[in-house]
Please model this.
Amino acid sequence: MCVPMIRWNSLPLSLRVAWRELQAIATSYSVLLVLVGGVFVYGLLYNYMYAPNVVREVPVAVVDHSHTALSRQYVRWLDATPDVAVAYELPDMVAAKSLMTQGEVFGILYLPRDFATLFYEGRSSVYPFYASTDAFLYYEAMERANLLVMEAMDGDYRTTLLPFLSLQGLAAVATQSPVTVVGTALYNPIEGYGVYLIPSVLMIIIFQTLMMLIAMMSGRERQQRLLAPYACLRSNHTRLALSLVCGKSLTYGMLYGVFSLFLMGALPLIFDIPHAASGLSLTVLLVPYIFSTSFLGLALSRWYTDPEAPILFIAFFSIGLIFLSGVSFPLELMPWYWCAVHYIIPAAPATLAFVKLSAMEASLRDIAPELIALCMQTVAYFLLAVAVYRRKLKCGYSSPHEKG
Amino acid sequence: MDNICNDARVTPPWEGQGGGPLLRELHRMTSRRIYLVAAVVLPLFLIAFMATIFGTGQMEHIPIGVVDADNTASSRSVVRNIAAVPTFEVLHHYADDAAARAAVQRKDIYGYLSIPPRFEAYMLRGEGATLSYYYHYALLAVGGEVMSAFEQALIPVRMAPIVVEAVTLGATEESIETFLLPMTSDDHALYNPSLNYSTYLTLPIFYIMFQILVLLVTLYAIGSERKEGCSHSWLASAHGNILVALTGKLLPYTLLFICEALLANVVFFYWVGIPFAGDMCLFSLLTVIFVLATQSVAVLLYTLLPALSFVISIVSMVGSLGATLSGLTFPLPAMHPIVQYAALLFPVRHFTVAMQQIVYSDAGFAACFSSLAVLCLFPLVALLLLPRLRRILHVCPHDTLE
Model:
């Protein structure tokens, strides 16, 4: 029992460790569940959930106290926009507010009694539009639709107000075309939410499932004292630790190489999410990402005492990683200490770099800061992982009932 | 961990005392660091994380660029207008669009304004001068802010040449502005007028992450009993009564989680400054029911799949779906119907609905009654399945599945 894998004695120890790790993964149902569920089911599910991509027909209520052809046309045009649907036409604001509290509508357009009167008198007709901020996507859709209708109505009816411009020559000036402002959304032509979020989620899936996999394997290793046979080998502990860290990481690297093909290769094609990254640039990003994550997981295994406990620490923070990556909220606006954490956890810079590569057609030079951070993490966590495994071998797991 | 269970068989400190399982659980909790870290340190870390991650919460000083190919008084005036917007910080003036685009690619800037050559000449002649702005929409949240700020800032620029010329001809500024924009919408962003990200996300995201922790810790507390072969000892401490055993076991965690959630409410509303329009008692009641409902889901899941390593793996993945299914980021009605129905199975969805009603709209008990009622159903369903849990603990006291 002291010398594991006698049949493979001629192979380098790291390869034997890699093979043994693969065997252990393949024979553990719970680990396979994390891999299949986390990588394949989760990858597909997230894409399916965000497949609608855009928000359409946000229900709003209209309180029309004007009751004129002009107000009716405004309501018709608002209803005709793709973003908003006029769900209710109500007699007063109290009823509209009540519907908003119940979540039946997300906006209220109030057209006052003098809406058309002021307009036809050549005076400014101001009317309020109330939009809920429960969901920012709803708010943006309503604001966009209302602005569109306001501009269209103003443009359409402007000529009817020419008689109010009494000064000679003014009419010619006022009918000139104003400055045209054109806004263009870069890198997300369909302006979809899924297009924005999914690339980040895919990278977080890799990080979280790999951390969980390592936690479960290391926890079991500690619980069942699976390192004890290695500690008996007549070799120095540093060399053994090197072989263990390299062997295990080799297995994780190979597995996640295959998973990355599914996550970054197949899924973007199936669900039509951005996939502008070239194979080479993806490889250059994923290699340090997977290995730095693997080394980080192995370094943290110092504190893993059973297969389940570490999951408590890893799983709850998935959403936090999205924020730390700077994809959702700009890094520039975060406090300095969270910006520093961004460069410590591999998932954060890697997610940002992947979004740059896949959605923004960035080159390797554009992701240089993130690549440098990942490479530095790889080196640092590798040394840390070796030190941790060296210590584990020295201790030899002599005390299986160590407090966790 | 085995020590605790085995020691218990020799000299159970809780034997013959009232609240046997409760004392037993307190003994277990204090015997391993994991309980302290997972049930106390992590929630406190979460409160600190959510209270600070968004900085001021305001999307201000977002770096943008300017390409001024016209270099005239008018174009410089437009640039000055843009630079004065609090949302923007004009980081750099680029020589051409290609350089600005490359800067966006590197994420040095989140958008840029491009003023074409002869802009002033076209504008003064009224021959359709055009201003183009570009915003980063692969990063949708910040991109949306940049777009909105550009639109707002450029409204006066659109009409400026006509207004100036009309005023020189003798018209009043007010009359020409009324002519150009006769109907003007006065937009009000309710509950969050400054569109502050902290106000929008801090509270719901905290509870989404917190519920994952509640689910996992509850599962671990129950599942580790069978994993360590201590099921009989646990049941014996409650004289075989599963309801007493479970209540005694979960009560310390329930109290801890409730205290932490209430602390989070205080921190977010009074320290971070998230506006709160509703009734604090009602919101506290909602928080308590939410913690109980989430713990019940954990009990329910363990009863249906009594293998710790399996169920904890599943929950660790399913828990994160709460962010999507709460409807906070992408509105639920815009998703596929099957996803909308699936969301009903998550307490966090009902909590989010009720929370938004109370916090934003000052809704009373009647308005959020349905959400509260559904949240109360989760413990009831878990109670119905307790006999099955007892049978599992009694008949199969060891969980050897891995």
In short: Chain A touches chain B through 124 residues (CB under 8 Å). The beta strands of chain A are 58-64, 84-90, 107-111, 125-132, 180-186. Residues 349 and 369 of chain A are 8 Å apart (CA to CA). The domain at 58-174 of chain A is CATH 3.40.190 (D-Maltodextrin-Binding Protein; domain 2).
